[in-house]
Amino acid sequence: MKKLKFGLGAQILLGLILGVIVGSVFYGNPAIEGYLKPIGDTFIRLIKMIVAPIVLSSLIVGIAGVGDVKKLGKIGGKTLLFFELVTTVAIVMGLFVANTVQPGIGINDGNLTKVSIATYVNTAETVGHHSLADTFVNIVPSNIFESLAKGDLLAIIFFSVMFGLGVAAIGEKGRPIIHFCEGAAETMFWVTKQIMKFAPFGVFALIGTTVAKFGILSLIPLAKLAITVYASMAAFVILVLGGTAKLFGINIMNLIKVLKDELILAYTTASSEAVLPNIMTKMEAMGCPKAITSFVIPTGYSFNLTGSTLYQAIAAIFLAQMYGIDLPISTQINLMMVLMVTSKGIAGVPGVSFVVLLATLGAVGIPAEGLAFIAGIDRFLDMARTVVNVIGNALAAIVISKWENQYDSHKEEAIIKQMAA
Fold first, then answer.
1. Could you tell me if 309 and 337 are in contact, meaning their C-beta atoms sit under 8 angstroms apart?
2. How many CB atoms lie within 10 A of CB 372?
3. Confidence of residue 338 (pLDDT cuts 50, 70, 90)
4. pLDDT score of 348
5. Using CA of residue 82, residue 152, residue 48, residue 175, what is the dihedral sign?
6. DSSP letter assigned to residue 113
């Protein structure tokens, strides 16, 4: 008989359940936010605190190990190609589902609760002028310390790659730097383990605050949209990511089992950053080399937001249907092209999907003000799209590793056997 384990995933689920209960009991009571919000904010800050140092130190060690500009360029090119293909499929699938299911038909905005989206407007105005050229320019940091302070992953990745190549180029003189970065990475992973012990409390506070503010009943008027989004996310994981995994000899269900604790944490916090260090560790344990894992996964946080782009396509069509706006195929293609550009390189922005939609809707004639009607359930939708983002980035590390013939399948077999024991 198997011994019942009350691991991190179970503790986080318990925190989620208790948070929903407490939030429901104190629904509409603003005082509860004063008690719970600081706990949730502290947990998110703890996560943000460790992300940049882990990416910086891990990537420098990994790149120094590669030490070849041509090889690195080859890996980078394949990574971006894979990201663009999968993201495009996500947008197309979102448009197809929204046009087929038509979740916005029959919705009367007079029956919906309107939530202020003023906090996103200024950021959206900046993103509205965000071009693909701007994305590549912003990759290069003018001040790496400023980028580290802001948690700008793309700039940190660029600096780490250049620094790692420099360390490799100077040979033995660079060994002390590699040892230092290895020590720093190991130290930060230890810190991560300690922070994860606080995760159930953070989840409890984050969910409790959300439910107390918006209430579970806020889902009912927009239930069709919520069901459409969740069903689409599940279909994308099974059909698109599952099909991609099978193409490269991977069982997507095995990957999900390996990442179950991280997926529960990502879902309950609606934050990909909360699991970034653990995803990197798990992918190395599954057989991906450090150089690929430490490059692909952080880069994916800006270029491989498949769950977010799938949601954005559905939400845009939903709003058009709600307002009775007919979008011809040409306009929807234009919407797809705009989303492909605006969704890149702004992953560090809070409420990134809202920001992207605000910046995008006006370009195809959909009133951006409509987002105020779905803001109340966005947290619940964000939880689903975060899970898809995480699975997509973890799978990307395996795909690129296999593509480069550097994947250790023996490690994968070992970790799956260990989980089955």
1. no
2. 17
3. confident
4. 47
5. positive
6. P
The packing angle between helices 153-169 and 132-139, to 10°, is 50
Residue 183 structural domain:
8-420
Return the minimum-mean-pLDDT range out of 73-77, 120-124, 241-245, 309-313.
120-124
Residue 225's alpha-carbon distances to 24, 64, 98, 99, 168, in angstroms, are 22, 47, 9, 12, 51
Threshold 0.70, pTM exceeds: yes
Q: Could you give the CA distance from residue 362 to residue 319 in angstroms, rounded to a whole number?
A: 12
For residues 86 and 252, what is the distance between their CA atoms, to the nearest angstrom?
A: 15
Domain count along the chain: 1
- Note whether residue 45 is domain-resident: yes
CATH number for the domain that contains residue 47: 1.10.3860.10
pLDDT at 137: 79
Taking residues 167-185, report their average pLDDT.
90
Flag whether pLDDT at 294 surpasses 80: yes
- 78: amino acid identity, one letter: K
Quote the tokens at residue 314.
């559905």
Lookup: tokens for 321: 């249907």
Q: Is 146 within a domain? A: yes
Single-letter amino acid, residue 1:
M
For residues 378 and 50, give the distance between their C-alpha atoms in angstroms, rounded to a whole number: 26
DSSP assignment letter at 349: S
CB 232 within 8 A of CB 52: no
